[in-house]
Amino acid sequence: MSAAIVGYARVSSTGQSLDVQLDKLKAYRCTKVFAEKRSGRQADGRPELQACLTFLREGDTLAITKLDRMARSVLDLAKIADQLRQKSVTLKVLDQAIDTSTSEGKLMFSLLASFAEFENDIRAERQMDGIAKARIKGVQFGRKHALTPEQVGRIKTLREEESFSVPQIAERFNVGVATVYRALKLP
């Protein structure tokens, strides 16, 4: 069996397109491409990456367009690199001209992995700063309440004064019984 060129493409959200990556991998003559729309934070949560790593055989080449498409942390990247090394699989990063079959490529791979994690950490810090500022300005995060304060008051009245059962109230307000119980506990 001859060595295969296998591609892996990933975008973080369903609103993003894989087309550019898939075109580059096709132009590189990948015989098989694994693609998914998932966060890159942890490799374990990406079934297509896991399938790709399982599929690869000794002598194969794994092609990706950019290093951050495969991993966002140095730890994940090190684990993946170790799996590839154990299988004698070469990694080619097309946009960053990395080829782990050379000493220079291995060095660049390590350096860029560190920079990718650093950039991701900075992005996360900026995001947390933005969330903190938004909270100071009164922005509410999370799911909206299922009931208005007026509806909560009406639920309490129905339960206490008119002896409605919790399931009856839930059906009337089109909410779950747990929501009714939570509303009854509110001051």
Describe the structure.
Belongs to the site-specific recombinase resolvase family. This is DNA invertase. InterPro entries: Homeodomain-like_sf (IPR009057), Recombinase_CS (IPR006118), Resolv_N (IPR006119), Resolvase-like_N_sf (IPR036162), Resolvase_HTH_dom (IPR006120), SSR_resolvase (IPR050639). It comes from Dyella nitratireducens. Keywords: DNA integration, DNA recombination, DNA-binding. With 187 residues, the chain is an alpha/beta fold. It has 2 domains: 114 residues, Resolvase, N-terminal catalytic domain (Rossmann fold); 37 residues. 50% of the residues lie in helices and 12% in strands. It contains 7 helices and 5 strands, in the order βαβαβαββαααα. A 5-stranded mixed sheet has the order 2-1-3-4-5, sandwiched between helices. Helix 6 packs across helix 7. The protein is elongated and about 80 Å long. The N and C termini lie far apart (72 Å). The mean pLDDT is 88.
Name given to the CATH architecture of the largest domain: 3-Layer(aba) Sandwich
CATH topology of the largest domain: Rossmann fold
CATH superfamily of the largest domain: Resolvase, N-terminal catalytic domain
- Summed over residues and divided by their number, the pLDDT gives a mean of 88
Write down the domain tally: 2
Number of helices: 7
Pfam families: HTH_7, Resolvase
Keywords: DNA integration, DNA recombination, DNA-binding
Domain Resolvase/invertase-type recombinase catalytic: 4-138
Active site: 12
